[in-house]
């Protein structure tokens, strides 16, 4: 569709204007160069009813959002994320152990390893005490969150007055869903936080992001300390919720790519054997000597990006672009999939080919870096992108140095074909 209709498309759906940007040029022109008016989020009745509008992804652009971003950036800028390398490396080793014991339970092992690492970093709860119920809280919330994100799922989004109709009225089953999801949201926000506070009180917690922030907050006067503690509570919940699914889904894409392209595995393993050797596992200090592994990270983000249409940006005031009027309130979608599958930039884009990012054994600087697209644009760019990039490297390098990734076998012992498919949701 992008090739047929150009790099800017407009639709009108139930009174809502949708703008789809299909090129990096158009995305940069609007979402970055004009970010002051393209950084809001969509109005959503269901988000308000479930209280999910408190999440950073769906939070409206304003002072509260800026406070969250400022606090996050202190701990997520490129130098700051180096302090998490030890925890990320432990998490990668934990994934290896899980896969060794439960090799047929890939999805759960990835998610549980990511959950354990994130809970430890955020709340200081020791890895041995991170149980599956932490992950269950998140997964229960995700099901509802993605249902709300699907366009057309809830009539109340288009007829807001329906939110005031009594719950006993026919056709208002969505109210029960909103109530249940709101309860899950509070459980998700408060569960890990309360367990961390209990662990702190019992003296069994490890140093963490929340304990460091709470120590700083304790030095403020009472009213400011209360505000800061509430901010820390919400921020850590946002980081917990925003990191596990995205990192797990990206790693799952990596495994699919390796099964479908075994020649990539072999070249990566040859590089690891030459640089790391047989007597240890990869470390972050090896990264500069592992350009092919770094290329695999980039290709994983490009090949099957988990946010094919990104998160909609809301235009905050009327604008004009290339002679077209963009009304206030229009939702602007970034066609990340089209940008990262542009055959003129990435020839044969459907093929997992890390070599496209290399020349003479070194990473190329003349080809657009998928990390500049995969994590969003403008002021809404993912605050955890540097953390995520490091996380992908250490897990991908560790897995490839330890295992051969092969397709599952059917009852007759033949490999089951693997295909990579996208979903129409925000996350594929």
**Helix-strand pattern:** HEEHHHHHHHHHHHEEEEHEEHH
Q: What is the tally of beta strands?
A: 8
Determine the mean pLDDT: 91
Physical arrangement of strands within the biggest beta sheet: 1-2-6-3
Q: Can you tell me about this structure?
A:
It is a single chain. The protein is α+β, with helices and mostly antiparallel strands and 428 residues long. It has a single domain (2-402), classed as Orthogonal Bundle (Cytochrome p450), CATH 1.10.630. Helices cover 51% and strands 7% of the residues. The chain has 15 helices and eight strands. β4 and β5 form a beta hairpin. The longest helix is centred in the middle third of the chain and has 39 residues, at 222-260.
Structural descriptors:
iron; alpha+beta; Cyt_P450; two-stranded antiparallel ribbon; Cytochrome p450; disordered C terminus; monooxygenase activity
Helix-strand blueprint:
Blueprint (H helix, E strand, L loop, with lengths): L1 H4 L2 E6 L2 E6 L2 H9 L12 H6 L12 H14 L8 H17 L4 H18 L8 H18 L23 H30 L6 H9 L4 H39 L1 H14 L15 H13 L9 E2 L4 E3 L2 E3 L4 E4 L1 H5 L17 E2 L2 E2 L7 H4 L10 H18 L26
Parallel strand pairs: 2-6
Antiparallel strand pairs: 1-2, 3-6, 4-5, 7-8
